[in-house]
Amino acid sequence: MIPRVIDPSLAKEEMRLIGCDPAGIRLMSPKAQQFVIKLDKIRVIAANIIKQEMLSFGGEAATGYGAIDHSAKTTDILLIGNQKQLALLVKKMRAQQFGLPVLASQITEALTNYEKVLPKLRIGEKTFTFGRRTYIMGILNVTPDSFSDGGKFNNIDAALEQAEQMLEVGADIIDIGGESTRPGAKPVSATEEIQRVIPIIKKLARTGRAVISIDTRRAVVAQAALAAGADMINDISGLRHDRKMAGVIARHKVPVCLMHIQGTPRNMQTKPAYHDLMGEIISYLEESIAIAGNAGILHGKIIVDPGIGFGKTAQHNLEIFRRLKELRVLGCPVLIGPSRKATIGQVLDLPVTERVEGTAAAVALSIANGAEIVRVHDVKEMVRVARMTDAIIRRK
Asked: Exposed/middle/buried for 344, CB within 10 Å: 0-12, 13-18, 19+?
């Protein structure tokens, strides 16, 4: 039989299959999983210490050339090693100077978050147990100008009927939005946004069937929505648009989804550019998490979203799908919203009404790469995609 190359994440399972001694499994499995960890803007003197120590443990550490000839003050570092080598490095760093003990703690926290099982999250009357299956957030835009379904559900009867249909086919959350955030969209007043969403939230909440999310950037809208029966906040600005938003969420003790955006809906697609796409997204979300924490929002109530299509080119969005696992270092459930987005239209050269298959591909790959919640228009189809993907990748 031809020798096989096994995914490192399966090493522990394969050791059990071949009858390896349990003590041997505990000893060897940390050596099987390789990690590549990026550290940004490290002082050259500290970087050289890290590199020397990592090499001594049999790992690798790549630095910029300026760290070798001391022509630079700082350098990024790529650490390449297994769990055992990284554990030894962290232990050695804790006894050093030049800020290395703090950096050691940050590496430990990132690795812990990356590997950990996420805690359960209570949203409304429902408990979300992440890791068992993917949860589906159904989109309900009660606006006249949303990019995909603008004008379809901006009256109470149509909106409630659509919500009921999404719940019937498997939606776990209904995300109600009263302001279009499509590229180039002009903001509406808070009064108008409230008038659009509150009657629908009230009626839907009375049924007791739905976990309700309010998609808004404004604290006053969030306050009204929560009073009307909403269970969580979905803020595309990551608490940046309205500094009062975090306080409202903290007082109501509800979960929040923090999204990354570059710019605003009106200008976000005007030549978006990044030096380090995933690094900048993670840094932005880390700052949003800090804003939330400073306001009293518990870390366990935070969901993060990389913001597909919000200040990104098609290539940026495709890179996010490929590298979505990197968001795990934040220690939060990941939500992603690829549904019918322009990137799918550009790749497949299809109008917004014909993007269900492209959305399905993006949903499946997002789940495989760590998404716990997917935000979609086509709930029935994406529930099926999610269930099939879960059956493949979510092992007990």
From this structure: buried
